[in-house]
Specification:
By secondary structure, the chain is an alpha+beta fold. Helix content is 17%, strand content 27%. Belongs to the peptidase C40 family.
Length: 195
């Protein structure tokens, strides 16, 4: 790893065939890393040769990604990242960022939620969906052979709203019921929320 070789002063990456403007995932990663970023536009000249173009530089500035409307980027803007953002913003709780490989839900080895929920301060709600409270994490199993691979946060008792970030979709708010209820496998509650 680069950090093993010395201090990392900046991150440089490219945006092939598009402007070198930071995406929400780039902005989040810059904030998380606490160091400047440089994005290089890469394209082709008239002869077809690859050329570097404009460079855009930015640094941590306090950016906070929105909860809703973000494109899915595994490990940066996914369902667990949404849970982390919600808890930090709404409860002032910083949850650990567990390493996760894309496709972990089908490798038969890693189980992101069941292996880590207690380490993050959660416990299973014995009555599950019958006792939902705002802030509860709903674990679901969608197109996975092995275990729960998706999660949402229950945010409103009136209309049963849940926010979630499904693979390949924008983060969004949905009514919790129907399909979502059918694929639910467990409900987790942060320990300090216990009634």
């Amino acid at each position: 790893m680069a950090v093993d070789r010395g201090e990392i002063l900046a991150v440089v990456h490219s945006h092939p065939d598009r402007p070198p403007l930071p995406s929400p995932a780039d902005l989040d990663a810059c904030e998380e890393g606490g160091i400047p970023w440089h994005i290089v536009h890469v394209g082709k000249d008239d002869a077809g040769a690859v050329v570097a173009g404009e460079i855009h530089t930015f640094a941590p500035s306090g950016y906070e990604a929105p909860l809703l409307g973000l494109p899915f980027v595994h490990g940066v803007h996914d369902c667990y990242a949404l849970i982390r953002r919600w808890y930090k913003r709404e409860r002032g709780i910083v949850l650990p960022d567990f390493e996760r490989r894309d496709g972990w839900w089908d490798d038969g080895v890693q189980n992101l939620y069941l292996d880590n929920y207690a380490k993050a301060g959660f416990e299973v709600v014995p009555d599950g969906v019958a006792d939902l409270q705002v802030g509860d994490v709903i674990l679901m199993q969608i197109r996975s052979k092995n275990h729960p691979n998706h999660a949402g946060i229950y945010i409103d008792g009136g209309w049963q709203w849940m926010i979630h970030h499904e693979y390949g979709q924008l983060s969004c708010k949905v009514v919790y019921g129907g399909h979502w209820l059918q694929v639910t496998r467990a409900v987790l509650r942060y320990r300090s929320q216990r009634s």
